[in-house]
Amino acid sequence: MLAAACRIFAQIAPGAALILWACAVSAAEPTRGDPLLPRSQLASTDSPLEAAFSARAGEPLRQFGYDLFASATDAVSAAEAAPGAIQGDYVLNTGDTVLVTLRGQKSFSKRFTVDRNGQLVVDDLRPLTAAGLTLDTLRRDLAATVAATWPSTDAFASLAEVRRIGVLVTGAVHRPGRQEISAFATVLDALSAAGGVDRGGSLRAVRLMRSGGAVMVDLYALQIAGATGNADMPLRDGDRLFVPPLGATVAIAGPVKRPGIYELPPDGGPLSASEMRDLAGGTLRPGRGRLVRFGIGPSGEEATEEIADPDAKRFGDGDLLLIAPEREDRRGEVRLDGHVLRPGPRALTRAKSLSGLLSRADLRPSAYFPFAALESTAPATAARSLRPVDLSAVLNGRDRRQLSDGDTLYVLGTADVDFLTSEAVLALLRGERQPRQDACPGLVALARILAAEPAGPLATGPQARAAATLTGSRTPCPPLFSTVPDLLPLALRHSVLRLTGAPRPGFYPVADGPESAGARETIVESEAPQYELIGHVRRPGTRRLPAGSTLRQALAEGKALKRDVYPLLGIVERYDRRTLTRAYLPFSPQEVAAGRADRALSDGDRIHLFAADDIRGLVKPAESRADSKADDESEPPMLAALLDPAIVAVIGERTVQLRGAVRDPGGYPVADLTPLAALVAAAGGLSTDADPTVAELMAANGTRNAIDLTRDGARRIGPGDALRINPRPQALEARAVAIEGAVRRPGRYDIGRGETLSSLIARAGGLIDDAYPAGAVLTRESERRREKEQFQLQARELERTLALEVEKGEPVKAENVALARQLAAQLRAAEPLGRVVVEADPAVLRSRPALDPLLEPDDRIVIPKRPLTVAVSGEVLHPTAAQFVSGKGAEDYLNEAGGPTRDADTGRSFLVLPDGRARPLALSSWNHRVDAIPPGSILVVPRDPRPFDGLDATKAVGNILSQLAITAASISVITR
C-alpha cells in the first residue's frame, strides 16, 4: 500500500534502510503478470488463395489438408515422448541410452549411453560393442558377459532413451531450420516439429533428400485414402526435407461432403468432374446434378460452361467446379405451416383440397380466422405466389379449392396480426423507407415495396393515412414473417382499419379485404356510443357503451386491470363535441375497484391506465434528477414520449412527495385526496427502520403537522403535499470494528452508539500478560480520507508553486522540477494509514475517562506484544534495531548506529513513540536534557534539506512522504 511513499523516502533519506525494509514488508503485494492469449484463440485469416476462390464460389472455401498440422505442438510432444516398448530388432547407435538391471550376486539398475565409439560401458564389466547391433543381440552379449563375471546373476536390458537426430527442414514451413527429433521420428513428425506446412506450400510434392537420392512424399494419400505412403518413412541423422511452393490448384463447391481447394498432383494432367467429386468425398444427396465449370481464360477473364460428360478431363489450374442438383423439390406433397400444432409436409394423395389439409384440431390456440395465405406455383410462369384464404370458410367447408403439388398454406395467429400495427410497421408506412439494420425479412420486403412503388396503394392508401394517427406496440417480429417475408405486405394490402369491435385499434387482414374488393370500406367504426381502454389493462381497445355505464363497470370492478397497474391515478380523457374541448378527469383505480368511488362514462371517453414502473420513471424525485447523468436527462422517459403532453402535465401537477423511511421514496401522482396508508403502500411500504409514530406532513399551503401513521393512516392528503417518515434512532452502528493482537478474544465486534475503546477491550476479554498498550495502533477510515484529501491538496499546491516560479522566470534547476513533478504524482498515489493517537491502557482509561476514545464503524485496533528493541533510522552510518535498555538515552542509541552521517541534520532529530506521537530530541552537545525512550520507538535523524532550497513546497512534500514512510515503518515494527 505504501510502495510509492517508500520510493520517495528512499530519495530523501537513502540511509534509512530499516524503514524502507519495513515499508516493503508491510506494503508488499503479490504481483500478477498479464495473461498471455492462448494460441488457439488467435484469429486466423484466410490465405489469398482461399479469399479468391471463396469470392468466386460465393461460399467460404478452405485449402484441404493443412488442418493436419493444427496440433503441431501435440505432435512434437508425442514425438518427444518416452519410447515405450521397443521391439528387439531395433538397431542401436551412438546416443541411445540403455537401462541395465542386474539381479543376483550383483544387483543394480542403472542407465548407460552408447558412446561415440559405439560401445556400452557398464560398471565393472568389459566394454560391449553396441552400435550396429539389435537390442536382442545386445541382451545376449550382456547376459554372457555378466554370467562370466558374476555367476548366478541375471541381466536385463531395455531401451531407456532414444537417441536424437538432426533433420534440416526448409521451404514453406512455419519454422524452417534444423529440427532435433527422436530417432523414431518420421517425415510427418519432422514437418510437425517445424510448425507444419504453410498454406503457401505444397502437400503433394514434399521432397526427402539423403545421400542415396531424393524421395517424393504425397500427404494427400494419407488424408484421403489413409495410405501412409512415404509419410511414415523413418528419418536418419542429416536428412533434409524441402517443402516447395504450392502447385496447381482447383476448387469444388456446392452440396458435397468436403468442399474446398485441392492441389493437383505435380506430374498429373487435368482432372475430370468425377475425380474432383471423389476428392470432395462425394455429393450430399444421390442423383444427377448440374456440373458447372468456372475457368480462367488467357486474358484473365472467367468463363462458365456446363459439363455434360463428368469423365472429361477439363479441370486444370485455377478452375472451379460448382455442383448443383438438377431438382431439389419434392413431389406429391403439400405443406401446412404457421400457427398450427404440427407444421410440415402432408401427402397430396390424402390432402387434395384445403378442407382436407386443415381441420380445427390442427390449429393452435388464438388462431386468426379471417385471413390465411396459400403459396402455390403459377403454371404459366412457374413463379411462386401468395393468395389470401378465408380460414373460416375452409373450416366450414365452403372453400374446397383443389391443391397442387408443392402448395403451402400459412396460418396466422393473433400475435402475427398484432405485429401489423407495431411501431416498426407504422414507421415504414409513415414514410421511413429504410428499416433498421436488425429488421426481420418481412419488414425489409415491406420497405422495398414502398420504395419501389411510392405512388402505390400501400404508400398512399388508407393504411398509410391511418398510420399517422395510430400508436403502435413494440412487439418483436414474429417468426412467420421471417420465414415468408412477402406475407407481411400481403396481409397489409388486405387489411381494414378497425377502430371498434376489436381488442385494440389497428389493421386486421381479411381475405376479401380492400385489395380483393376494390371499393370495400377500409375503416370499420361503429356509430353506437363507445369508450376506449388504453394502457395497462388486460384487453385494451374500443368497446360499446351501454346506457348508464360507469367507470367501475368498464374496469370490470378491477378485474380488467393488470396486477402492476399504478393504483393511485388514472385519467379519463373526455371530448366535448359541443365546445370542442378536452377535459382530463383524474380518478383512483384503487378506489374505483374497491367500490369507494365511481364516475359515469360518456360517449367517446378514453380511459388511461398506467404501469407503476412507468409512473415512477416519469415522476422522478428532484434529487434523483440532480444526480443523474447528463445523457439520461437529455432523453425523456419512454412514457412521456408516447403520451399526450397534456396528460403528462396532469400527472406532474398531481404529485405528492414521499420521503424518508419508505422502500421507494419519491414523487407519487394521486387523483385527489388519498389515504396515507394507500400512499405508503404504493411506495412499497415502510422500511424496517421506520418510526410511523413521528411522521411529518407538510401541506401545500405551508402548514406542518406531526402525524402518527398508526392512528392517522386513514387521513387523506392531496396533490402538492409532502410526507416525511422519520427513521428510528439506531442502537447499533451499521458496520463493525475489529480488534486484533494481544487480547484474549480478537475479532470483529458490533458496536453501539457511544461505544468506547475500554468497553471494546473488556468485551474482547481484556489484555493478555505480554500486551503493550502503549503501542496500540488505531486506524480510522475517516482519518484516512482526511489525510488523502490533504495529500491531494499538497500535490496541487506543489504543482501550482512550480508553475508560478516558472512563470516568474525564477532560476529553478531542471532536476528539482522533475523531482517536484515526481513527488506530486507519487503523493497523489500514496495511500495514508489514517492512524489516530490513542491511550489504550485500561488502568489509565479507568482513572481518566476523558482519554477513552469513542469508536467509529470500520475502526481497526491492534494491541501489540511488548517489543524489545528501539530502531534508529535516517542519516546514520548503520541503521539498526538496538536492544532496549531502561534508562539508555538517545545519544547512546545513536552511537550504536555509528553516529550521524555528513548529510544529517541532527538539530531536527525526532523520536516516534510507539503510540504514534512524535517529539523532538535534543542531540546537541550543549543540551544535556534526558529523554526517556520507551521500547518500540524509532529514533529518526533526517537529512539536511539543502538540495531543495529552491522549492519550499518540495521540502514540505518530501517531509510528508518521509513521515508517511516512517509511520508505516513504526507500525510494522511495533506490530511485528
From TrEMBL:
Does the keyword Acetylation feature in the UniProt annotation?
no
Q: Supply one GO BP term.
A: monoatomic ion transport
Q: What is its main location?
A: membrane
Domain annotation Polysaccharide export protein N-terminal: ranges: 87-147
Q: Which InterPro entries match?
A: Caps_synth_GfcC-like_C (IPR010425), Poly_export (IPR049712), Poly_export_N (IPR003715), SLBB_dom (IPR054765), Soluble_ligand-bd (IPR019554)
SLBB domain boundaries: 167-243
Transport listed as a keyword = yes
Per its record, how is this protein called by name?
A: Sugar transporter
Family stated for the protein in its record: Belongs to the BexD/CtrA/VexA family.
Q: Which UniProt keywords apply?
A: Cell outer membrane, Coiled coil, Ion transport, Lipoprotein, Membrane, Palmitate, Polysaccharide transport, Porin, Signal, Sugar transport, Transmembrane, Transmembrane beta strand, Transport
Q: Which Pfam families match?
A: Caps_syn_GfcC_C (PF06251), Poly_export (PF02563), SLBB (PF10531), SLBB_2 (PF22461)
**For the Soluble ligand binding domain, which residue ranges apply?**
250-271, 656-693, 737-781
Q: Where is the Capsule biosynthesis GfcC-like C-terminal domain?
A: 881-942
Which species expresses this protein natively? Azospirillum palustre
Cellular localization per UniProt: Cell outer membrane
